[in-house]
Design a protein that fits this description.
Length: about 90
């Protein structure tokens, strides 16, 4: 778990995705708009977080409008980040 936390906090983009998904499922565009960060960086961060099994795609067959949410492991990491005081 600590490796995953270190992985998340070492990138403002990965951290933004985790924090952006705390309220439920979203598209990469929604996270980009909410955070003011570039869509390509958000998409890359989602891919990296998916590889770590922290984020999952709910609509993998769609090419546009894919929805992502935190996995159970991602929810656990989010809880630790909130305890740590991340925003």
């Amino acid at each position: 778990m600590w490796d995953a936390i270190g992985f998340v906090i070492s990138s403002k983009y990965r951290l933004a995705v985790i924090m952006g998904l705390r309220s439920g499922f979203k598209t990469p565009s929604e996270i980009s708009e909410e955070t003011g960060l570039g869509l390509s960086q958000i998409s890359r961060a989602i891919s990296e977080l998916s590889d770590f099994e922290l984020v999952e795609c709910l609509t993998p067959k769609l090419l546009k409008g894919r929805l992502f949410k935190l996995t159970e492991k991602g929810e656990s990491i989010l809880g630790e980040l909130i305890k740590r005081g991340e925003k």
